[in-house]
Design a protein that fits this description.
This protein is of the alpha+beta class. About 30% of the residues lie in helices and about 10% in strands. It has a two-stranded antiparallel ribbon. Strand 1 and strand 2 (about 40-45) form a beta hairpin.
Length: about 60
């Protein structure tokens, strides 16, 4: 039994496909907001996709 693709997300920070320190941190607590690890910009938890896109843009 391989895990379903829905349960595995790429880590926006280190681009790991599997469990990493960052994904473990995110699973342990549902944050009220997201802080960009690069520029410390804060995003509400309701804007998770925007946060992920923002972090991804730093890597471009």
């Amino acid at each position: 039994g391989s895990p379903s693709p829905l349960s595995i997300k790429k880590c926006p920070i280190c681009k790991a496909d599997d469990i990493c320190d960052h994904t473990l941190e995110q699973q342990q607590m549902q944050p009220l907001c997201f802080n960009c690890p690069i520029c410390d910009k804060i995003f509400p938890a309701t804007e998770k996709q925007i946060f992920e896109d923002h972090v991804f843009c730093h890597s471009l």
